[in-house]
Amino acid sequence: MPDKCNCENPLVPGIVEVFAIKEETPDVKSFFVRKPEGGLPFNVMPGQLAMVSLVPVGEGMYSVSWQEEQDYLQFAIKKVGLVTEQLHRIEVGQKLGVRGPYGNGFPVEDCRGKDMLFIGGGIGLAPLRSFIKYCFKHREDFGKIQIIYGSRSYDDLCFKDELFDLWPQEKDSEVYVTIDNPEEAWKGHVGFVPAYLEELNPSPQGRIAVICGPPIMIKFCLESLEKMGYSDEQVITTLEMRMKCGIGKCGRCNVGSQFICLDGPVFNLAQLKQLPPEW
Amino acid sequence: MKVLSKNRLAEAFDRISNDAALFVPLQRNNQSGYYDWKSFDQERDQLQLEALNTYLSPKEVLFPQTERMYSFHSQGSEVEILASFADAQPRVIFGLRACDLAAISALDDVFLTLGYEDSFYRARRDNVTLLARACYQPGPYCFCSSMGVDPVAAPGADVLIHDCGEIYAWESQTPQGEALTNQMAGLLEDKEVAFPALQPFSRIAPYSGVAAKLKNMFDHPLWEELSSTCQNCGICTYLCPSCYCFDIQVKNFGEEGYRFRCYDSCMYGEYSLMAGGHNPRPTGMERFRNRFLHKLQFFQERYGKPLCTGCGRCIVACPAGINITEIISKIQEVDDHAG
User: Fold this and answer.
1) How many Cβ atoms are within 10 Å of B226's Cβ, its own excluded?
2) I need a labelling partner for B198 at 20 to 30 A (CA). Which of A19, A146, B158, B337 fits?
3) Which of B218, B158, B148, B192 is nearest to B2 (CA)?
4) Within a domain: residue B48?
5) Distance between first and last Cα of chain B
6) Domain co-membership, A141 together with A234
7) Sorting pLDDT into bands at 50, 70 and 90, what band is B339?
8) Per the domain annotation, does A142 fall within a domain?
9) Residues 6 or more apart whose Cβ sits within 8 Å of residue B184
10) Which residues of A touch B110 (CB under 8 A)?
């Protein structure tokens, strides 16, 4: 089992300092945080969540896009609302509140020895990235690694250096990138992720598919994978709902009787089919 | 059996109030609820000892409408958490009905089990003494027995009292109840008493089997019909003794501030609206359906009991006349073998 929030009070944040900020896209920034005295506020497993607060402004739940050893956490955050708008204005040195980790995370142990197919859309690559980098870090534990990723435009592609330079260089890996609409300078694939997935048609043999993106993309990809012969246990997704507490109490992130913050955010398709499609 | 004479009640209240905040059912202005006995004002307040349910439920005592979580100091890029709050003041709730007591048991399930404990609730819960009142005469909106609640029993209460005319029969049920009983020394007498007979319920909700049946009714057209009059005002969620959803917000005064939580309602669009605009429950129908499924199916699946204890407050308060017992009946009437 991944770590759960082990702080004295799971609703009260600890303080971290932003020591680096990287612009990923025009509206996505990565924030690198560690405790003011150095080190991690807590350990996270791939796919787990943390509540980040610009303390006087508000809190938001984000997936941790990477934990670098015992050094720092990285959050890739898209500017979409009140809190993220303010977060995008902070500078290096800013102190933030952070509490967590929350949620179940990806079933990394169950994926050991399997070929991995990661399917991402837009900022949905942020949670997948923690698992992708985990696979590359523990390269011998996993088979072939394929990544299909798309966004609206070239500019909106997150983690470009990894997508185009680092990940394709890794042993036995393939990276497929697509954008929604043609652009003059873009020589790669154009089209939506689910269609690209069907076109590439990776065989379900010995493979686990992990999906994250906008809900509509996830729904279409689930259908595509079913068509392609993937069993319900071979398909994993990570969901997002509005969250406030992170510990399964405040109510709003329920899908049926399950809470995304506590029982999720990661579900396989077999589990998802037991729940109402309300996400 | 120990009994407390009703004409010594004020004396008992004063004595309890010396050591704890005592919450008693009062009619106050145009509302009723459980208020601190020390704030009792004859001009304004009237004890509600005969009334079955107060308009506001006693959940407020354990889970207040707004509650500070922690305070902070913030200046420029610096921020410091100053204090995390825990309200461990001793409290006594006098006169809880079985439905409200069962609702507290549901709140206990939510806040104290499955993964995490909520420290704010824990601090209050550990320091409250619950004194329940048996109900022998169910009211016109009461249907607790349909939801598995025994109106004359009080599992989990520290003391259970029975209204026997001029006196209350007084039964201590826990060590905490014994302590309260000892505090009443000199006010309680020993007497033979006969409890009243439990009168029949006029309202029945055929809940048996509903949770299982609802599993296959998520897309049923019944939800459109049932929700068509709902205004999503949220009064049901505020008055419900077992509704517990909360929001977390922040208040700033210059460099000082605090984060607090407050009741929220699944009836509102903002409740599940995400930054970026996606809302998994975009219309009133989805929100209505989620509320009733939570009450009747989801909570049952998660905690083994419904999240409705049959107090009837929502039936009284709903401006659109939505009635959860009728909803349960309509679900029961659906022919799920059709087609």
Assistant:
1) 19
2) B158
3) B192
4) yes
5) 60
6) yes
7) very low
8) yes
9) B4, B12, B15, B170
10) 249
Q: What is the pLDDT of residues B280-332, one digit of tens each?
A: 999 999 999 999 999 999 999 999 999 999 999 999 999 999 999 999 999 99
Beta-carbon separation of B293 and A247 below 8 A: no
At B159-218, the pLDDT tens digits run 999 999 999 999 999 999 999 999 999 999 999 999 999 999 999 999 999 999 999 999
Q: Based on the fold, state whether residues A28 and A58 are members of the same structural domain.
A: yes
- In which element (H, E) is residue B36 found? strand B31-36
Coil/strand/helix, residue A136:
helix
Q: Where are the alpha helices (DSSP H) in B139-233?
A: 175-183, 210-214, 222-227
**Which residue from B187, B135, B126, B189 is spatially nearest to B161, judged by alpha carbons?**
B135
Rounded CA-CA distance A128/A179 in Å is 18
C-alpha angle A129-A35-A58 in degrees, rounded to nearest 5 = 75
A187-A131-A269 Cα angle (round to 5) = 95
- Is A278 within 8 Å of B119 when comparing Cβ atoms? no
Judged by CB atoms closer than 8 Å, whether chains meet at A55 and B257 is answered as yes
Q: Which pair of tokens denotes residue B52?
A: 């079955």
Task: Please give the radius of gyration of chain B, using alpha carbons only, rounded to the nearest integer.
Answer: 22
As a whole number of angstroms, the distance between CA A270 and CA A273 comes to 5
Find the domain containing A48 and state its range: 14-102
| Measured CA distances, B94 to B61, B100, B105, B117, B120 (Å) | 11, 12, 16, 26, 22
B259 CB neighbours in chain A (<8 A) are 55
Between CA B219 and CA A66 the distance in angstroms is: 39
Closest-CA residue of A relative to B281 is A278
A81 and A121: one domain?
Answer: no
Q: Measured at the alpha carbon of residue A200, what is the angle toward residues A194 and A203, in degrees to the nearest 5?
A: 105
Range of the domain at B278: 2-333
CA nearest to B116 within chain A: A247
A72 lies in the same domain as A185 = no
| Chain B residues inside the 8 Å CB shell of A96 | 79
User: Do A63 and A44 contact (CB within 8 A), yes or no?
Assistant: no
For the purposes of burial, counting CB atoms within 10 Å of the CB of B185, is it exposed (0-12), middle (13-18) or buried (19 or more)? exposed
Domain count, chain B: 1
Amino acid at B56: L
State whether A129 and A205 are in the same domain: yes
Q: Which helix (H) or strand (E) segment is B22 a member of? A: strand B21-28
Model confidence band, residue B51 (pLDDT cutoffs 50, 70, 90): confident
DSSP state of A32: E
Amino acid at A182: P
Number of domains into which chain A is organized:
2
Q: What is the CB-side half-sphere exposure of residue A258 using CA atoms within 13 A? A: 21
Sign, CA dihedral B25-B28-B31-B37, equals: negative
Measured between alpha carbons, how far is B59 from B50 in angstroms, rounded to an integer?
Answer: 20
How many of the other CB atoms lie within 10 Å of CB of B289?
24
In the numeric block, the tokens 């798309």 are attached to: A150
**What is the maximum alpha-carbon separation in chain B?**
71
CB contact under 8 A, B116 and A215: no
Q: Is A95 a domain residue?
A: yes
Residue A257 lies in a domain: no
